[in-house]
Structure formats: C-alpha cells, structure tokens
C-alpha cells in the first residue's frame, strides 16, 4: 500500500503517502496515549523513587509511548544504561513478565520484546527523529 485515502470527520478527503503515514503515526500514537510532554522532562529530573512510582501509574499504552519518547531522546548503550533508562525498561519488562531486575545485560527475550515495541535494543540502531 503506497497511499491511503481517508475522509476526515469534516468531510474533507485526504490522500496520505507512505511517508505521510510514517510521519503521522508517532504523533497519532502519542495523542492516543494522551502523554503529557512535560511528564518526560519532569521525570527525567526527578528522584529515582518518584520515577518508579510515576511509571507504575501509567497505563500500558502510556508507558510504551513514554519509552518511545525516551528512545528518541537517548542513545542506547547496553553496557552502561543510566538509571532513568533502567527504570523505564524495568517497568516494561515487569509488565511483560520478563526479568525486570537484571538489566545490566539484556537477554535475547528482553531485546526481542523491545524490538517488538519498536524500541531500540542495541547501539547500532540510529536515533529516531523527534
């Protein structure tokens, strides 16, 4: 599928190219998750305990979108995950029933899970555009 025709609720018909769809999808996902942009910046500066508590309050879609925002803001370094990254991945893995306490080296299962969510799991995957 190279194009998609869609009629907006206003009655206007639009045609989206593949590039248009790829650019709109992250914006639509973020809007559907209702993620507050300021939450990321606030939690990035917060105490570790506050970060863990706030991440637990997010629903699954919000958490995944939060992780995608983080993914676009950081470069993955498997050997030296910072505390903020560890909190996010730990919460993702806990909800998925994966090993969430050991994050020093990600298992193949953990990496596959991150990849299935569209998240970086190794440092040779380029940073996404925000």
Molecular structure report:
There is one protein chain. This protein is mainly alpha-helical. It has two domains: 33 residues, no CATH class; 82 residues, no CATH class. 55% of the residues lie in helices and 8% in strands. Strands 1-2 form a two-stranded antiparallel ribbon. α3 runs parallel beside α5. The longest helix has 16 residues. The radius of gyration is 17 Å and the shape is elongated. It starts with a strand and ends in a 14-residue tail after the last helix. The model has no long low-confidence stretch (mean pLDDT 78).
Put the structure in a nutshell.
With 130 residues, the chain is mainly alpha-helical. 55% of the residues lie in helices and 8% in strands.
For the sheet with most strands, the description reads: 2 strands, antiparallel
Number-wise, the strands total 2
Shape: elongated
Distance between the termini: 25 Å
Q: How many domains would you count in the coordinates?
A: 2
- Count the helices. How many? 6
Mean pLDDT: 78
Low-confidence stretches: none
Oligomer type: single chain
Radius of gyration: 17 Å
Which percent range fits the helix content?
40-55%
Topology order in helix (H) and strand (E) letters: EEHHHHHH
**Strand order, largest beta sheet:** 1-2
Strand proportion:
5-15%
């Amino acid at each position: 599928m190279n194009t998609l025709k869609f009629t907006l609720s206003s009655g206007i018909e639009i045609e989206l190219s593949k590039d248009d769809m790829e650019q709109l999808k992250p914006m639509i996902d973020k809007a559907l998750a209702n993620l507050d942009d300021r939450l990321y910046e606030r939690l990035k500066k917060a105490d570790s305990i506050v970060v863990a508590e706030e991440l637990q309050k997010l629903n699954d879609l919000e958490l995944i979108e939060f992780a995608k925002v983080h993914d676009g803001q950081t470069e993955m370094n498997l050997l030296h995950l910072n505390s903020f990254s560890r909190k996010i991945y730990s919460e993702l893995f806990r909800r998925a029933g994966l090993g969430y306490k050991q994050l020093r080296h990600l298992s193949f299962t953990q990496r596959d899970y991150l990849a299935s969510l569209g998240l970086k799991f190794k440092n040779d995957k380029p940073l996404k555009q925000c």
